[in-house]
C-alpha cells in the first residue's frame, strides 16, 4: 500500500501578485527592448536582423529574451504592433465635427501622409511586403492593425456625413477604401520604390491632397455640397 506523502505547504503556495511598480518596470523594459529591436530591423531589414544582437543591445539574458520572443517573426510582430498602436492614435484622432468636410478631410490627409511617408513606415512596408509571402500572419496582422482600423475610422466619419446630407448615400466602407487608395497612390508607392519625386516637400503633399479631395468629392459629394454651401473654395 502506497504511503500518501503530505505536500509541503511552503512548496504549494501561489506566488504573490506582483506590485504595480514591478509591472510598470517590466512594461518599461519591454518597451525599451522593442525600441532597440525596431532600430535593428529598420537598419538591417528582417533577414539581416540578429536576435542575439538585439538581446545583447537590450542587456537581456538569452533565457529571458527567448522566453518572451521565441522567434524573430514574433519579435517583429511585437515591434510592428507597438508602432502601429502609437501612430494610428494620431491618424485616427477624431476629426473636427464643426469643420466643412473638405477641411476635415484635408486634415486627415495631412496626418495620413505624414505617417505613410515617414522613413520608418516606408521601411516597415518594404519588410512586410517581402516577408508576408513566406510569413502570411505578418501581412494579416499588419492589415488588422493598420489599414483595417484606418478604414473603419473613415467609414464611421463618412456615415455621419451621409446622415448630415453632405455625402451621397453609398457604402461608407467603400468610400473609405477609395479615399485611402487615392491618398496612398502615387506618393507612397513611389517612395516604397525608392523614387522621391518631391514627395517629401509639404507643398507637394498638400497639392496631392487637394487633387485627391477634388476627385473624391466630385464622386461622393451631394449637389448642395458641390455648389459650395459646405465646401470651402481654397485649394491650398
Automatic annotation (TrEMBL):
Location of region: Disordered: 1-22
Single annotated GO MF: DNA-binding transcription factor activity
Keyword Ion transport recorded: no
Matching Pfam families: TetR_C_7, TetR_N
Domain of life: Bacteria
InterPro entries: DNA-bd_HTH_TetR-type_CS, Homeodomain-like_sf, HTH-type_TetR-like_transc_reg, HTH_TetR, Tet_transcr_reg_TetR-rel_C_sf, TetR_C_Proteobacteria
Known DNA-binding region: 50-69
Keyword Zinc: no
UniProt entry keywords in alphabetical sequence: DNA-binding, Transcription, Transcription regulation
Domain HTH tetR-type: 27-87
Protein name per UniProt: AcrR family transcriptional regulator
Amino acid at each position: 500500500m502506497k504511503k500518501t506523502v503530505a505536500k509541503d505547504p511552503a512548496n504549494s503556495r501561489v506566488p504573490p501578485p506582483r506590485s504595480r511598480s514591478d509591472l510598470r518596470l517590466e512594461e518599461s523594459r519591454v518597451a525599451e527592448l522593442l525600441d532597440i529591436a525596431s532600430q535593428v530591423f529598420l537598419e538591417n531589414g528582417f533577414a539581416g536582423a540578429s536576435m542575439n544582437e538585439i538581446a545583447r543591445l537590450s542587456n537581456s539574458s538569452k533565457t529571458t529574451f527567448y522566453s518572451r520572443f521565441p522567434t524573430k517573426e514574433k519579435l517583429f510582430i511585437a515591434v510592428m504592433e507597438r508602432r502601429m498602436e502609437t501612430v494610428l492614435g494620431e491618424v485616427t484622432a477624431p476629426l473636427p465635427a464643426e469643420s466643412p468636410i473638405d477641411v476635415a478631410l484635408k486634415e486627415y490627409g495631412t496626418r495620413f501622409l505624414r505617417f505613410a511617408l515617414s522613413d520608418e513606415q516606408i521601411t516597415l512596408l518594404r519588410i512586410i511586403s517581402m516577408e508576408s509571402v513566406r510569413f502570411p500572419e505578418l501581412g494579416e496582422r499588419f492589415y488588422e492593425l493598420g489599414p483595417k482600423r484606418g478604414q473603419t475610422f473613415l467609414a464611421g466619419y463618412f456615415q455621419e456625413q451621409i446622415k448630415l446630407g453632405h455625402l451621397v448615400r453609398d457604402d461608407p466602407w467603400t468610400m473609405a477604401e477609395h479615399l485611402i487608395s487615392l491618398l496612398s497612390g502615387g506618393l507612397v508607392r513611389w517612395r516604397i520604390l525608392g523614387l522621391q519625386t518631391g514627395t517629401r516637400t509639404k507643398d507637394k503633399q498638400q497639392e496631392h491632397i487637394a487633387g485627391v479631395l477634388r476627385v473624391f468629392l466630385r464622386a461622393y459629394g451631394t449637389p448642395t455640397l458641390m455648389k459650395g454651401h459646405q465646401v470651402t473654395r481654397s485649394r491650398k
